Amino acid sequence: MNLASDILFTGLGVVSPIGIGCEAFWNAFAARESGIRLINSFDSSALSVRFGGQIPGFDPKLYVRPRKSLKVMSREIQYGFAAADLAMNDAGLSAGSIDPDRFGVVFGNDMIYADLEDLESTYRRSKCNGQFEFPLWAEAIHEELHPLWLLKHLPNMTASHIAIAHDARGPNNSIVLGDVSSLLAIAEAASVIQRGWADVMLAGGTGCRLHPTALVARGDALLSHRADDFRRACRPFDRDRDGLVNGEGAGVIVLESRAHAERRGARIRGRLLATASRCEPTARRDGFTGSSLRSVIRAVLDQARLTPSDIGHVNAHGVSTIDMDRIEASAIVAELGNVPVTAPKSFFGHIGAGGGVVELIASLLGLEAGLVVPTLNYELPDPLCPVQVVRDEPLAGRPPTAIAVNVCSTGQAVAVAVAAAH
């Protein structure tokens, strides 16, 4: 989708393991501070991997209103709500300052796993002589569970809570497509504005891959086991990488039509040039080959009317698994040559559906500062990952444009081209 710079970014909000709010987030990149830490939000002693990108010191009461809504908000919904609040404040938008019918929300979400403590009493009542009995469960669940319990786990509730709180009565949508969800949310929000259905959209994503049920369900086959030095465990494109690191967080970006932003004198934090998405239909059966990634890079270049030499950097998916990094690196080099590459997951891990927007915010803040954020833990180049990874220090002097990409194992790939405000 060619946007001809008519859609602007006017607000950024982030809740991440390396900082809450743009200032703390950016300062962590500048100081090369890792957000990977030992998991202490629950008892992780039985897990084979007990570290991840956990957010320290998050207090949902500082953001969520009304407070009673916390009863029906999972952790990732709380993160998304807080990120939206931060983005609205950053954009200088307040209640009543936008026509509510022309103000919408699109959010990327993962599957939201149930909190085990909510189900414990129901489970215990359903045991008879040491055996679980479904008839007992059917009776106990009506008496033990909060009547609105399910609302904590519906992936559309993040966008719903945000829309209610900010009186956004325009288009509202939720996208649940794994790792590409939040970049797809950016694309959908931009499309809504381009079609003339809204003036302002909140687009974001949230994810918590550190939920104990999620960790058990997904297993540890793709995880890094570098427990002796866990801050150096997430090392995208490095020769000695041994797997991904799970994380949690959320990001939200305010998208605004140029006419609306200029009319209210908004601060411009970046421009959206183009978006594109492609899919490999056979990826689940035959494995991801990277053909959809190559295709989506070509498509976004064409839509934005850019050449590889126009691109300042690529914000890579950079998940730090052996196979995916090699496939991604090969695709980037094949389509863009030696364009510098950064991989923000090295700082905070794999956030899932929230990762794309959180990573994109890193690029937008970098474009404002005239810098490309570095990649942590990149020490030994992998000959099979021939990308030019930005390492050690931020990179200056590049064109003020970037392409952010996300891919998922089922074959989808999404690319978003952005540029600095001027």
Based on helices, strands and strand pairing, what is the structural class?
alpha/beta
CATH architecture group name of the largest domain: 3-Layer(aba) Sandwich
For the record, give the distance between the C-alpha atoms at the N and C termini, rounded to a whole number: 21 Å
In terms of DSSP E residues, the strand content is 15-25%
Major sheet size, sense and barrel closure: 12 strands, mixed
Mean pLDDT: 95
Q: What is the rounded Rg?
A: 21 Å
Quote the CATH topology of the largest domain.
Answer: Peroxisomal Thiolase, Chain A, domain 1
CATH class of the largest domain: Alpha Beta
The amount of helix comes to 25-40%
Uncertain residue ranges: none
Whole-number total of structural domains = 2
Shape: globular
- CATH H-tier superfamily of the largest domain: Thiolase/Chalcone synthase
Kindly state the number of beta strands.
Answer: 18
Write the layout of secondary structure elements.
Layout: E1 2-16, E2 19-20, H1 22-31, E3 37-38, E4 51-52, H2 75-91, E5 103-109, H3 116-125, E6 127-128, E7 131-132, H4 134-144, H5 157-166, E8 172-175, H6 181-194, E9 200-208, H7 212-218, E10 248-257, H8 258-264, E11 270-279, H9 283-286, H10 291-304, E12 313-315, H11 322-336, E13 340-342, H12 345-348, H13 355-369, E14 371-372, E15 388-389, E16 395-396, E17 401-407, E18 412-419
Parallel strand pairs: 5-8, 5-9, 12-13, 12-17, 13-15
Antiparallel strand pairs: 1-2, 1-10, 1-11, 3-4, 6-7, 9-10, 11-18, 14-16, 17-18
What features would you describe in this structure?
There is one protein chain. By secondary structure, the chain is an alpha/beta fold. It folds into two domains: 2-112 and 154-419, Thiolase/Chalcone synthase (Peroxisomal Thiolase, Chain A, domain 1); 116-149, no CATH class. The chain is built from 13 helices and 18 strands. The protein has helices spanning 22-31, 75-91, 116-125, 134-144, 157-166, 181-194, 212-218, 258-264, 283-286, 291-304, 322-336, 345-348, 355-369; strands spanning 2-16, 19-20, 37-38, 51-52, 103-109, 127-128, 131-132, 172-175, 200-208, 248-257, 270-279, 313-315, 340-342, 371-372, 388-389, 395-396, 401-407, 412-419. The strands form four sheets. Strands 1, 2, 5, 8, 9, 10, 11, 12, 13, 15, 17 and 18 form a twelve-stranded mixed sheet that branches. A two-stranded antiparallel ribbon has the order 3-4. It has a two-stranded antiparallel ribbon with strand order 6-7. Strand 17 and strand 18 (412-419) form a beta hairpin. Helix 2 (75-91) runs parallel beside helix 5 and helix 3 (116-125) crosses helix 4. The radius of gyration is 21 Å and the shape is globular. The model has no long low-confidence stretch (mean pLDDT 95).
